Design the sequence.
């Protein structure tokens, strides 16, 4: 447009205008030369991008891809159930994908319980029978148990017989009598009778002495009455205890012998019973652990939600980012190719108004 001027004869057009017309024709020539390459590129990208988008992306979103993969005989000689060692067609890709989205474990997703029986593999009862049989056949032999030797028994009997106290009969008879050899009260009475027969001076002394004797007797009765009674009680207790000492000793020896016989007879059974109880407790621990391991293995180990998320991410990246861009690219190139035809026509029609003519058209 800058080189085109009105009123100028076609033979007198400027070089700028002529160059514009030449570029129009050059564009037409390049369009005819290279447009097939552009058409071929559009066709290849269309075939690849369009078909991949329709076959993979659309079928993934409407689950037709999984239905196709689950079709029996699609791949000759391939069966997912047979590959996992399962009977029948109980396992398919769509079911696996659905359970993985729900974060199920691979044990439930792949139905591994049909190929591997945890109840058989982790069945502890097959070992408890052998353990119980071996335990019943076990013979416990202990060394002889001796609580008291014969020498110790003889020493105890001899000590019980030699530990008899002396005869306290005479002592008890003496304790029943007065504390002093004579009675102080009788002596005081005699002094009072003697005082009545004597003169005044001696009489007073005798009465004082009689009074002192009565006071002394009273004090002695108060001081020695309790200890004497306690002494009598202790003597009687020693006599009764000493009389039963030998009987108690023989009773204790009999109990010791019975205890020794009981230990020799029942100790192996007691040890076996306690050992069996401990063994049963250990087996209970093993059963609890096996139950926990089975639940963890079948419910928590190898959850496959990351696999489903990875597939979803691959679909998002491949379809929403790559394939959408590829399809937009061939779509844009297709429109460019489509507009080549009107652009060629326009270029040819416009070139005559820009190029310098060799002969002016009188009309």
Sequence:
């Amino acid at each position: 447009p800058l080189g085109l001027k009105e009123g100028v004869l076609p033979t007198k057009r400027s070089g700028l205008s002529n160059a514009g017309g030449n570029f129009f024709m050059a564009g037409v020539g390049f369009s005819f030369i290279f447009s097939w390459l552009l058409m071929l590129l559009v066709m290849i990208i269309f075939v690849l991008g369009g078909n991949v988008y329709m076959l993979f992306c659309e079928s993934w979103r409407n689950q037709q891809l999984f239905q196709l993969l689950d079709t029996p005989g699609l791949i000759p000689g391939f069966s997912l159930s047979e590959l996992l060692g399962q009977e029948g067609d109980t396992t398919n890709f769509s079911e696996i994908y659905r359970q993985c989205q729900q974060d199920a474990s691979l044990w439930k997703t792949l139905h591994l319980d049909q190929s591997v029986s945890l109840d058989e593999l982790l069945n502890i009862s097959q070992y408890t029978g052998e353990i119980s049989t071996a335990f019943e056949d076990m013979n416990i032999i202990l060394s002889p148990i001796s609580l008291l030797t014969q020498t110790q028994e003889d020493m105890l009997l001899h000590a019980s017989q030699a530990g008899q106290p002396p005869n306290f009969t005479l002592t008890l008879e003496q304790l029943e009598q007065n504390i002093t050899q004579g009675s102080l009260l009788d002596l005081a009475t005699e002094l009072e009778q003697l005082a009545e027969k004597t003169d005044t001076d001696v009489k007073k002394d005798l009465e004082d002495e009689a009074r002192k004797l009565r006071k002394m007797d009273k004090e002695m009765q108060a001081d020695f009455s309790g200890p004497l009674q306690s002494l009598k009680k202790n003597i009687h207790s020693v006599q009764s205890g000493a009389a039963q000492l030998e009987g108690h000793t023989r009773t204790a020896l009999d109990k010791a012998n019975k205890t020794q016989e009981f230990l020799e007879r029942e100790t192996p059974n007691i040890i076996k019973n306690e050992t069996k109880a401990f063994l049963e407790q250990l087996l209970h621990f093993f059963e609890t652990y096996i139950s926990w391991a089975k639940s963890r293995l079948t419910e928590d180990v190898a959850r496959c939600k990351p696999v489903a998320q990875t597939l979803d991410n691959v679909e998002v990246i491949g379809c929403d980012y790559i394939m959408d861009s590829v399809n937009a690219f061939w779509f844009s190139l297709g429109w460019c190719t489509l507009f080549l035809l009107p652009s060629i026509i326009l270029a040819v029609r416009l070139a005559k108004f820009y190029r310098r003519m060799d002969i002016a058209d009188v009309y």
User: Anything to note?
Assistant: The first helix runs from residue 15 to 61. The chain has two domains: 1-104+303-362, 150-300. The chain has a mean pLDDT of 75. Residues 42 and 330 are 5 Å apart (CA to CA).
